[in-house]
Design goal:
CATH superfamily of the largest domain: Heat shock protein DnaJ, cysteine-rich domain
CATH topology of the largest domain: Chaperone, DNAj Protein, Chain A
Bound molecules: zinc ion
Helix content: 25-40%
Number of strands: 15
CATH class of the largest domain: Mainly Beta
Strand content: 25-35%
Largest sheet: 4 strands, mixed
Structural class: alpha+beta
Order of helices and strands: HHHHHHEHEEEEEEEEEEHEEEEHH
Number of domains: 4
């Protein structure tokens, strides 16, 4: 039987330092982890060998014995484990990879035994202008507080029993191939306790709801999707701690103004003669009328920017712009008089009124040659 070379297993040189050994192990262990290769016996074998090699080579003492006497030197030395007692192997893995593969040491903390979150969240909708300029809003909402009968446990007379699935530990051990992982018990969510008979007052929920209202200042410039934290307005835990209330803002759209960040867009329809002649018009801004000068030969979709006429930043610095986009309108029908006038106008421009002709003339000539 050929003895396995631990250095070859980890694909490293004999003089590799600890850093390199760890790196090599991480890479290979991830690659051959049973979770990634379900049902693959070969990968499982390989994974065991990788772990065995790492156990020896990552330990200075074991490594020097191995270097001098080979694997035989480690036997009877209590040197390494394989097959049995893989709990410590699991912990090597967990230590290196955290809880990536389900329930690591970090989640071992027992959860507080009450049934609800102390932070609370609500949604409110405000008008477009309320968001732009800020406003006061009365918030009607409900918060939770511990059921007085069961002190928030949800259990009759507040009496909990040990969870039979995890024996009260809050954790269960899962075997994955030869590996053992600690996992939060799904039956008691890690508390180790379950309700054997429900509190009759709250039907096992553990809390009662209280209606309340308060006034909130919505700051100028708030935008759709912003969230405000109101401290001390959340739910109340059995021990009296009060969480926060998160207010999620939804802003209604306006018919004419479109907001993008702190900029405001507005479309201005103009008749084709207005852009041909040039014009000066009044347009609505957020804070009153604005004068828009339309130069001759303004194009469709052309934009004009009014600096600082947008929304004030909710963070308190600067203002956005108001951006006007031109939408040129043409007559949809002409009476005979208008048609007459337009024809006269066109003629008065002579060749300039038919810009396509001078361009296409040369192209017609060229195309003729292609087909002759
Ligand atoms: Zn109760
Ligand atoms: Zn349990």
């Amino acid at each position: 039987m050929v003895e396995i070379d631990y250095y070859q297993v980890l694909e490293i040189e004999k003089n590799a330092d600890k850093q390199l050994i760890k790196k090599a192990y991480r890479k290979l262990a991830m690659q051959y982890h049973p979770d990634k290769n379900p049902g693959d016996k070969e990968a499982e074998e390989k994974f065991k060998t990788i772990n065995e090699a790492y156990q020896v080579l990552s330990d200075d003492e074991k490594r020097s014995i191995y270097d001098r006497y080979g694997k035989a030197g480690l036997e009877g030395h209590g040197g390494f484990s394989r097959g049995g007692g893989f709990d410590d192997l699991g912990s090597i893995f967990e230590e290196m990879f955290g809880s990536a593969f389900g329930g690591g040491a970090r989640s071992r903390q027992k959860k507080k035994s009450y049934t609800y979150n102390i932070d609370n969240a609500i949604n409110i909708t405000v008008e477009f202008n309320e968001a732009v300029f800020g406003c006061k809003k009365t918030i009607n909402y409900k918060y939770k507080k511990a059921c007085s009968t069961c002190s928030g446990t949800g259990a009759k007379d507040g009496k909990m029993s040990a969870c039979p699935h995890c024996g009260g530990h809050g954790q269960i051990h899962m075997r994955q191939g030869f590996m053992t992982f600690a996992q939060t018990c799904p039956h008691c969510s890690g508390s180790g306790e379950i309700i054997s008979s429900k509190c009759t007052k709250c039907a096992g929920k553990g809390y009662e709801e209280v209606s309340d209202e308060f006034e909130i200042n919505i700051p100028e410039g708030i935008d759709n999707g912003n969230r405000m934290r109101v401290s001390g307005k959340g739910n109340i835990a059995p021990d009296g701690t009060r969480g926060d209330l998160y207010v999620q803002i939804k802003v209604k759209e306006d018919k004419h103004f479109v907001r993008y960040d702190n900029d405001i867009y507005i479309e201005v329809p103009l008749f084709f003669t207005q852009v041909a002649l040039g014009d000066t018009i009044q347009i609505p801004g957020l804070r009153g009328e604005l004068e828009l000068k339309i130069p001759q030969a303004t194009k469709d979709k052309e934009q004009f920017r009014f600096k600082g006429e947008g929304v004030k930043s909710v963070q308190g610095y600067g203002k956005g712009d108001l951006i006007v986009q031109i939408n040129i309108k043409y007559p949809t029908s002409l009476n005979s008089e208008q048609e007459e006038l337009l024809k006269k106008l066109q003629e008065s421009f002579g060749i300039e009124s038919k810009p396509h002709e001078s361009i296409f003339e040369s192209m017609f000539e060229k195309a003729k040659k292609w087909f002759s």
